[in-house]
Amino acid sequence: MAEAIMNTITKPRQGAWTGKRIALIVGLLLAVVIVPIAFQGFQELSFFVRVLAIAAIYVILALGLNIVTGYAGLLNFGYAAFYAMGAYASVVVGNLVIDMIAKIGNVGLREFLTGSTWIAMLPVAAVVAALAGLALGAPVLRLRGDYLAIVTLGFGEIVRLLAVNDFLGLTRGAMGVSTTQVNPVGLTWLQDNARLTFGGFDFMFSVNLYWYFAAVAIIIFTIFVIRRLDDSRLGRSWVAMREDEIAAESVGVNVMTAKLWAFALGAMFGGLAGVIFANSQGFVSPESFIFMESAMIVSMVVLGGMGSIPGVIVGALLLAGIPEVISGVAQSPLLSGLISAETASSISSYRYLAFGLLMVVMMAVRPQGMIPSKRRAQELQPDDMRIVEDEDQSSWTVEHGARHDL
Amino acid sequence: MSLVEAINTTMQFGGLKAVNELNMHIEEGEIVALIGPNGAGKTTFFNMLTGIYKPTSGELTFAGGSVAGKKAHQICRLGIARTFQNIRLFSNMTTLENVMVGRHTRSKAGPWQAVLRSPGFKREEKATVDAAYQRLQFVGLASSANELAKNLPYGAQRRLEIARALATDPKLLLLDEPAAGMNPQESAELTKLVGRIRKSGVTVLLIEHDMKVVMDIADRIYVLDFGELIAEGKPEEIQKNPKVIEAYLGVGAEAMLAQA
After folding, report:
1. Is A286 in contact with A340 (CB distance < 8 Å)?
2. Burial class (CB in 10 A: 0-12, 13-18, 19+), B198
3. Which of A5, A224, A307, B99 has its CA 20 to 30 A from that of A94?
4. Higher confidence at residue A184 or residue B127?
5. How far apart are CA A165 and CA A167, in angstroms?
6. Backbone angles phi, psi at B230, to 5 degrees
7. A300 CA: distance to closest CA in chain B (Å)
8. What was the ipTM of the complex prediction?
9. pLDDT digit string (tens) for A209-244?
10. Between vectors from CA B246 to CA B240 and to CA B249, what angle results, nearest 5°?
């Protein structure tokens, strides 16, 4: 009997392989692969590939923050710090490794190894970012709400300022650090062999396309890990903690540990995004990790739908994609008739105003986000649940007099 | 050695002594009731036993070890589980999931095993579901396993909280007003449930206002008023105790009752 129950619960979430589901996944995969290739083939549209690559990196960031905010329910306004750490670690350590490899005589082996360095930097960045996540999480565990937001914001700024001030002589301040120029593994082969020309369509595998697919691979990995965590002892303890921290603690959940795991795991994905960013851009500077970045990532998660993977992905694609598209369109020869460069740049400068308005409107009209996770939508049900909760709160306060720290 | 021993246990909030030099003990296998008017300090005592408050002074031991200053989840691991006066379920989780969270201390799979889906992880998940389902059967909620906790009727929610507490495999179960808001039929069912809990080897300490329930199941009763112990003994003795009557009904009530 318990088997039957377990199947009912776990099946929908672990993905019953229904025809509909398979069709959806295949469709998505095709879109993810075919669309950018199509863009790459048309010279006027090829800049879109870079847009997609950038948007894909933000998808990773949003998914990572989703673990901290959406699942564990902890605010983090300094998420860009982990992004920064991953990026800087990837460049600094990567350059060191490439220098060492340069001493190898065999040209073929040397090129393969230097090209693969970015892959080796993924676990390095993951560890660095995860440790940073623990370093941030440990002292802030007891904080709630606004206080947590302020402290995490501070942490984000601390990391950025350390970078600006040439931390340990590694980050070179505002000048930034460049990656040693190497061809990422496989790119030359792809550029030589993956070509397709017919009519107006001239496809050659580009660097942007390479990093786009690299980011997509990380996205798939991220989703895989998150879904498995969700349906586990840790995932349940996160939901319990979000629902009622005191009850969770009384029932044996070590809330502090659960929060630390959320911080560390969430940070780890930020680090991975940093590796892709650093290598695709070839250059890392503190400018890329200002508070606005962290705020944007939070917006992506909240607007897209906290706790919901598809929601967060859509949020990231829209919020990262649209500004890039606007500025790209202004530069594109195809569409320059539609929007002049001046219009495009003035749209860009009103971007923050637009974000602010969008946030206010969404919170008023649809706080659960565009594609809400089912749980969160229920949690945000107004009125009757809130009344019950208020009564709960006031009885507790009356029973125990003044509020006490737990 | 008593399962629970409180020696001059005191909880002071500023100038207020919510619990004042309480001396009490609970032996294994007993069902002990803690009664008294509202604000007497009963839930405060529960909170001290479960690590939500740290006693200001005095001793409070469980199975020979002090619980003062231990964290709530550590105490749960040691073997004390509780329910709450105002039901604190995980509303947006299903009934089964609520109880599965109760298995948290009795399982150990971490994130690595979860991501790798190791055979150990799968075994543990199945065991968790089985154990949770078993507890639901014990309290009579098996048919609601996939319902959201917040959609359950009130009486079922109370029983769910008990099932969740039982899932932690406690030696001692603290029930905070389990019969609150129940009609006589539900209270009778609850009395039977507590009896079954005792038979399964769990010691019970309950706070309760429903005197019928208390008299039916308690082996011994402690009476608190304004944080102090005013009476203790068997149910029959407590019923006739003048101090207890006064505490509940006011000074002079005993005389009034004697006249009636």
Report:
1. no
2. middle
3. A224
4. B127
5. 6
6. -105, -15
7. 24
8. 0.91
9. 999 999 999 999 999 999 999 899 999 999 999 899
10. 105
- Whether the CB-CB separation of A177 and A14 falls below 8 Å is answered with no
Is the pLDDT assigned to residue A371 strictly greater than 90? Answer: no
Of A236, A385, A399, the CB nearest to B100: A236
Token pair belonging to A51: 């847009």
More confident residue, B69 or A348: B69
Token pair of B116, please?
């790798």
- Please say whether the beta carbons of A186 and A115 come within 8 A: yes
Rounded distance between C-alpha atoms, residue A227 and residue A225, angstroms: 6
Sequence-ordered list of residues with C-beta below 8 angstroms from that of A363, at least 6 positions apart, any chain:
A302
The residue whose two tokens read 């095709």 is: A30
Domain ranges of chain A: 35-394
DSSP code for B94: B
B97:A9 CB<8 A: yes
CA distances from A61 to A93, A158, A164, B197, B255 (A): 22, 19, 22, 49, 74
CA distance B88 to chain A (A): 6
| Res A344: pLDDT | 63
Q: Which percentage of chain B shows pLDDT scores above 70?
A: 96
Indicate if the pLDDT at residue B78 is higher than 60.
yes
Task: Please name each of the domains of chain B with its CATH number.
Answer: 1-79+170-260 (3.40.50.300), 91-169 (no CATH)
**Distance between A237 CA and the closest CA of chain B, angstroms:** 7
What is the rounded CA–CA span in Å between residue A134 and residue A271? 13
- Burial class of residue A71, CB neighbours in 10 A (0-12, 13-18, 19+): buried
Q: Name the minimum distance, in Å, from the CA of B141 to any CA of chain A.
A: 13
Q: How confident is the model at residue A399 (pLDDT cuts 50, 70, 90)?
A: very low
E strand intervals along A102-182: 177-178
The token pair that represents A112 in the structure block: 């393969």
Q: Which two tokens stand for residue B189?
A: 């069912």
Beta strand ranges found along A248-304 (DSSP E): 283-284
Contacts of B134 in chain A (CB under 8 A): 2
User: What's the mean pLDDT when you consider all of chain A?
Assistant: 82
Mark yes or no for CB contact A401/B150 under 8 Å: no
- B211 touching A (Cβ < 8 Å): no
Whole-structure pTM value: 0.84
DSSP code at position A371: S
Q: Which residues contact A401 (CB under 8 A, 6 or more apart)?
A: B13, B16, B18
Q: Is the pLDDT of residue A398 over 60?
A: no
Q: How many inter-chain contacts (A to B, CB under 8 Å) are there?
A: 139
B-interface mutation test, from A250, A269, A384, most B Cβ less than 10 A away = A250
Compute the distance between CA of residue A224 and CA of residue B117 in angstroms, rounded to an integer.
12
Whether the predicted pLDDT of B19 surpasses 90: yes
Per-residue confidence band for A323, with pLDDT thresholds at 50, 70 and 90: confident
Backbone angles phi, psi at B133, to 5 degrees: -65, -40
Residues of A with Cβ-Cβ distance to B107 under 8 angstroms: 233
pLDDT digits (tens, 9 = 90+) for B160-201: 999 999 999 999 999 999 999 899 999 999 999 999 999 999
Sorted by sequence, the CB contacts under 8 Å of residue A323 that are 6+ apart come out as A348, A351
Q: What is the pLDDT of residues A113-172, one digit of tens each?
A: 888 899 999 999 999 999 999 998 898 888 877 888 899 999 999 999 999 998 888 878
